[in-house]
Batch of 2 targets.
Target 1
Amino acid sequence: MNLSSNLSRESIIHFLEGGGPDSRLFEAARAALQESAGSGVFLRGIVELSNNCRKNCLYCGLRKDNRNFSRYTIPAGEVVTVLKSGYAKGLRSFLLQSGELLGASHIDHIEKILRWVSGNLEGVSMVLSTGELPAKVLERFKKAGAHRYLLRIEASTPELYKRFHPDDGLHEYGDRLRSLQMIRASGWQTGTGVLIGLPGQTSENLADDLLFMKEMDIDMCGMGPYLEHEQTPLWNRRGELSQLEEREVLTLRMISLLRILLPTINIAATTALQTLDPEGLEKGLMAGANVVMPNLTPMKYRKDYNLYQGKVHVEDTLDEVLKILGNRCGVIGRNVELENPGDPIHFTNRMKAQAGD
Ligand code: SAM
Ligand code: SF4
């Protein structure tokens, strides 16, 4: 079977179901990465800005109706402190992530941080992952200096999406899709992703997720295993879940197949993958990922950003984290690219094509 960027749906399903062999798949993905973007690993410091959320996704520990933990928003001064220290150590891309909120104070807060970064940290690429927001708000964020937006479609099959979100008018598949399309059309470096291993999800669903990302021609992807959380409605369906090992291998196959379909995009080895397996970082990179997201959230907030149970909480200082990361990447022949925002080549090519170069 030919492993090229025009893989058929049938071939994708074949590999997802382990018709592999996996070694051949992972090798082909590494070759595709090496040829297009090289072996560099880009870092994106993540700040979990606020765990407040107006939504109630059935899988997420931050859902509005979960009242079993403290809600927080990190003040701008504390965010600035961690961004400065990340910058001093060579990070050039930061991701601000939060629950979805439309209130003026939340929007002003993000805008203020972005403006501070634009005025003080040179050569930084700011990424946002703050849910579905109106076009006007996104325009404000762009003017304040953000370039990249990550909005996971979560499940690209509308029927599946519906199964994991409340039917209350606030969680519509069509709205999420339009939001993603609007982000891409308004010039953002655009990222999406899906949850892997949801109860009842089939290999056909996952193959369609990959083809959705190819069709959308996205620039970045963050996709990872679904991990259960006791204080969510989906906990009741944990009996239907596949074993963690199966979710892990499925995630690795998804990463490889996406790398083959879209060789020049950025793909993250996600925290969820690293939560599943202490060697998730290496395995994700060996399957074709090229982005790692060290957590910069101040320690006192981390335990309250629990999307799922068992989320890894590294207690090391940033210096130690970067040193360990460098060593771990080195062992598998990969090089951490410091002082490099790591813009996806896919986006650069897309812009060139648009300009008619
Ligand atoms: N609120 C924004 C949104 O939903 O787009 C961004 C933050 S949200 C916490 C980031 C991602 O966490 C979601 O897109 C979802 O895929 C992931 N997530 C939520 N609950 C999860 C779970 N139980 N297991 C794995 N990933 C989860
Ligand atoms: Fe809120 Fe995002 Fe969690 Fe959904 S996934 S409940 S929008 S934080």
Target 2
Amino acid sequence: MKTSSAPIKTTAADPSTWDPEERMSRDELEALQLTRLQHTLKYAYERVPLYTKKFDEAGVRPEDLKELADLRLFPYTTKEDLRQTYPFGMFAVPQDQVARIHASSGTTGRPTVVGYTRGDLDRWGTLVARSLRASGVKSSYKVHNAYGYGLFTGGLGAHFGAETLGCTVIPMSGGQTEKQIQLIRDFEPDTILCTPTYLLTIGDAMQKAGLDPRATSLKNAVLGAEPWTEEMRRELEVMFDIDACDIYGLSEVMGPGVAGECVETKDGAHIWEDHFRPEIIDPFDDTKVLGDGEHGELVFTSLTKEALPIIRYRTHDLTRLLPGTSRPSMRRMGRITGRNDDMIILRGVNLFPSQIEEIALRVPGLSPHFQLEITRPDRMDELTVKIERREDCTSEAAVAAAATLKKEIKIHIGSSCGIQVVEPGSLARSSGKLRRIYDLRKEQPQG
Ligand code: DLL
């Protein structure tokens, strides 16, 4: 059986094809970061009224940054800042220099709007191309892009990155799963780009139609836009007989391609530190910047962005910084456990959907299709894990699997929860970012 640590179909990129910055020493990289950071702080302070105000209120000036560690003197930027200045208040260039606009879906409140100059788009294309190349995509490959096109940065961001790398791009977008399957069969792509849960949806639909996902032309997948685990990587690699690598990003900082995983090590995404300076802070006490290896909230400062420079953006993503491996000078990010706004606090215990995914996928008979329902029947919060049994797991075996899952969750997370094993195919499927949490204390479930 394949394991997640060994490359299967694709091989490590040839270092002679790397960008020069990927070959820099750490000292050279930090010198570049310092120059770029000093420029960005001055640029943002002079051009974006919100930054002028924030820096003045905090009593700091761009010249106060003498070394990289001085970044901690500067104020944070939050999603709320982008909402307050909706739509274009944080843009640092006049509109005629803005080549593209994207926006977040804005499920709560106003969407956050981001802009790109022509130069920003070129750098974005280069970084997505770098991420894809690191993940084993070759310029000769056909790339099936199933990230959603439109205001979401996934579709167009991945598209231009794959074109920049020199690939043949199939701009399929998300959804229409049957058509996805048909195009994968007819066009025979080498690579698929989508969210991990959507790849699972596609694989599932293939199996239901009597097709073997392992028999497709696909060699690899570059997956992101939502948290996923090593267990899910293994599931997808075995299901499709592919290499699956991670790609990370967020619209406020650029879009996909802020960090990308190398196929030769599959040990977390390398942050492209020539363009972004990462920090980890204590999410509960933002005066504390944590050291490498410590878990906390990821914060980014852009180093080269023109239309929307962003200073110390609080991502709400929880992870840690690790030393570089296959790109020694660029630090890696650990897998994202979750977002602190996706954290379930169940009778005092913190819990993320990714922890359930990790545990559930180790229980034979249970599938990766699950959702978490939170209710409050008796003034006490209760969590129910609704999870599909696998096709080859009998109803009797499912009862034992449920008991195992309940016990493992209690041991590893410390929470007691209800388990409901449901029929294969009965839970909502993803066509992009999957919603895992259904908080029935506040709302009725959707989908
Ligand atoms: O999801 C950009 C993207 C598109 C990344 C395609 C990768 C591939 P947003 O819609 O702004 O942008 O959502 C950003 O998604 O703060 C994380 O919480 C989550 N996220 C993105 N990539 C990963 C990943 C895009 N690889 C938010 N692992 C981020 C875990 C991820 N979470």
